[in-house]
C-alpha cells in the first residue's frame, strides 16, 4: 500500500510538471510534455494519483456546478503529448485538474486515514469563520480551515488545536483550569482572552488580555506570556523563543476583520498561510524566495488582493494566476 507521504510527494511532482507545461516557450513546452509522459510511465503510483483525483472531483460541488467535471475526466485520460501542446487553448481545464490534485493531497491522506480528522468536534472550511459558546460559558472562535477537539471533564477543560487558528475568551472557573494544546506544547489560561494559531512545526500565541503559562513540548520550562506579548514555540519557528511585544489592539482588529498580521516572516510562510484559505494551490520555489521577509496586514478572505499587495510591495516578485486554482510565485529574472 502506498503511504500518504509518498502520494503527497507524487502530487507535488505533478504540480512541478504543470508549471513547466505552462511555459510560453514552445520548445520548452514540448520538452516538458515529453518529460511529463515519461514521468507518468515511470511509476504506477502516478496513475493511482490520477485515479484518486477523478474520485475526489466527484465530491467537489464547485466543479459540479461549473459543468466542467466531464471535461476534466476526459483531460485525465487524454494522451499527455497531444493534450499539453494545446494547453494555452481549449484544454486549460487540464491545468485546473492538476492544480486541484495538489491542493487536495491532504484530503487524499484523509481518505487513507480518516481517524485524525474525525477527532475534531468543531471545524471550519477555507474562508469560513465561526464562533461557539462552550459548555462552561467560554467563547471559542475559529478562523478559516481550523479544527479543534474538546475534552471537558471534572478536573480540566482542554481544547486541542488540530490545525488553523482560534480566539479564546475563557470563562473563569475555580478548580478546573482551561488548557489549549497543540503538538508543540500546552497553554494554560491564567486569564481571559488570547489567540492561538498552529502551522506546520510551529504554534503562535498572541495575548489580548491577562496572561497564560506556556510549556513547550516535550518538556520545556514554563514561560508566562502577558497581555501585549506573543510567543512562538515549535521546531520550525523562526521567531525569538522568548515573549515578544505586540500591538494587542491591532491583533484583535485583524482577527475581527479576518486579516493576518505578519512581522518579519519569511515569504514562504506567508504564502503557505494564504494557500490554506483558498481553493487551489500556490506554487513557489522556497529557496528562490528564502531571503524575502514580510511585515504586513493581509486579508485572509480576499487572498487574491493579498497576493496583489505582495506583488506591489516586492518588485522582484512575479505572481501569475494561471487559473483561479493555480498561482505561481517566482523571482523575476535579473537583467
- Contiguous helical run count: 12
Average pLDDT over all residues: 77
Largest sheet: 13 strands, mixed
Helix content: 25-40%
**Backbone CA Rg:** 22 Å
CATH class of the largest domain: Mainly Beta
- Count of the domains: 3
End-to-end separation in angstroms reads: 49 Å
User: Per CATH, which architecture of the largest domain?
Assistant: Sandwich
Structure summary:
The chain is an alpha+beta fold. It contains 12 helices and 18 strands.
What does the model show?
The chain is α+β, with helices and mostly antiparallel strands and 335 residues long. The protein folds into three domains: 4-112, no CATH class; 119-239, Jelly Rolls; 260-331, Phage tail protein beta-alpha-beta fold (3-Layer(bab) Sandwich), CATH 3.55.50.30. It contains twelve helices and 18 strands. The strands form three sheets. Strands 1, 2, 3, 4, 5, 6, 7, 8, 9, 10, 11, 12 and 13 form a 13-stranded mixed β-sheet that branches. A hairpin with a 4-residue loop joins strand 4 (147-152) and strand 5. The longest helix is centred in the first third of the chain and has 18 residues, at 4-21. The protein is elongated. It starts with a helix and ends with a strand. The model is unreliable at 53-99 and 101-117 (pLDDT under 50).
